Task: structure prediction
Amino acid sequence: MKDRIAPLVEELHHCCREVGRRIQLMEVCGTHTVALFRHGIRALLPANLRLVSGPGCPVCVTAQRHIDAAIELATQPGVILATYGDMLRVPGRRGSLERVRAAGADVRVVNSVLTALELARQHSARPVVFLGVGFETTAPATAAAVLKAERSGLMNFFVLACHKLVVPAMKALLAAGDVPLDGFLAPGHVSVIIGSRAYEPITAEYGRAVVVAGFEPEQMLRGLVALVKQVADGRAAVENVYTGVVSDQGNAVALALLQRVFIAADTPWRELGVIPESGLELAPAYRRFDALVHFGIEPGADQEHPLCRCGEVITGRVEPPQCPAFADACTPMSPIGPCMVSSEGTCAAWYKYGRGAPGDHVRQSAPIGEPRV
Result:
C-alpha cells in the first residue's frame, strides 16, 4: 500500500508546485471526509492545497423542519417511526428522536428500508413511517420499497421523503460565489447511480474540474492528482478514476426506479436554503405513501441553534475548529448540530481524528494503512 501511495504523494506535491498558488478543492461526500482523515491523507497534502468539506453528508444537510416533522410523526398515536441510526440524535426544536423515544414514542432503528416494510407487515394495524434520507445512493431502495408496498397492498406503510440530489447542491454552491473552489472530488457512491456524465453541467456551466474517486487512500490520491493537474493545465473536465465501479451513464435500473416513483422538487437544505429541483418527492401516483400528506403535517420554519455553524461547515465556509461550540458545548456525547452526530459528519471527523488549527491538515491524523471496514 505505502509503495503505491508514495509516488502519488510525490506527484501531488509536484503538481501543486507547478500551479504556484493556493488551490482549494471540495470533497463533496461525507465518506470521503472521514476516509481522508482516517487514513491520514490530510497530513500528506502540500501546503498550498486545501480541502474543504461539502454538503455530502445526508444527515447534515437534512433541514431542521424535516427533523421536526419526523419528531411530530413519531409522536402520533400508534405510529412506528423507522429510521437509520444516524438520524436518532439529530436535534430539532423539540429535542430529538432519541428523546421522544425515551418519552415513549415507538422509534426503531433499521439498517434498510426493507426492514421498515417488514415492520408494516408485522404490525398491520399500525402506521409505519420510514424516514427516507440520503442522496441518489439510498433513494432507489426507498423507491423499490414503495413499489413493493403497492404490490403487497400494504396500506399502513408511509415515507417521509427527505432524499436529495447532489448535482443541484454543487451548482448552488458555485452560484453563491462566496466559496472559491477550483474543483470537486465527486462522491463515489452517488456516482455509481448517476454516472460520471451527470457532473458535466459543473464543468460546462461553471468551469470547475470534477473527478470521481473511490475511498481507498490510493483512489483518493489519484483523484486529487487528477484535479490538480486540471488546475495546472487550466482545464475543467469530468474525469473518473473509479472506473471499476462507476460508469459514464450510471445504473440504469436504479435511475428508472427514481424516475418512476419520485419527481424532482424544490427542497430546503441546511444553510443553502431551498434549492430548485434538488430533492425527491413522491410522484402523484404514489402520493398515498407520503407521510406528511397522510397525517396532514406541514413542516414549519428552520430555527438553528445560535452557536451551531454546521451549515457553514458543510458549505466550505469554515472548518469545525472555527465554530465556538466545537469540542466544547458541542461534542459527540452532547451534539448541538448534525455535523457532530453523523458518522459522516465533518465535525465528528475532526473531533475523532484530530483537532488542529484550521488549515493545518490535522498533522496528528492516523497513519496510512489498509482501508478499514
